[in-house]
Amino acid sequence: MICIRCGWCCKNMMAVVPDNPRWGPMEENLIVTPGDGQRCKHLRGDIPGEYSCFIHNREYYHEIPCHEFGQIENDPNSVCRIGMGVFQQLGKDVNGYLQEHGFEIVVNEIGFPITEDSKGFDGASV
Length: 126
Ligand code: SF4
Ligand code: SF4
Fold this sequence. Notes:
By secondary structure, the chain is α+β, with helices and mostly antiparallel strands. 17% of the residues lie in helices and 8% in strands.
């Protein structure tokens, strides 16, 4: 799944994350994000498409639940459907975003990559 940094999940989903970034995911250093629209304390940025996670590059990031966040998909080049929805509501161009950020794919309106393989029997993109 490709994250397009819309920021939605880091405000609207509960997750167990380290409180103090320096200590990492030790039992006595864990908090639960509010998940009620308030942002996770580690979220940086204010613009959909430009959010980032302050602890994303920490060596322990793969140990916290955020690392496992994904969606049902066959193709790892599918764009996050939540992010697709956020971009569509804001009128932001997902394919333009992908191009600007170096992804060599084009996706349809639900985030599936459009390739020869993804065309249905009638030739329509699915
Ligand atoms: S695109 Fe998906 S994974 Fe990325 S911030 Fe938005 S909701 Fe979260
Ligand atoms: S730790 Fe990072 S990825 Fe996880 S909710 Fe907070 S900002 Fe989002």
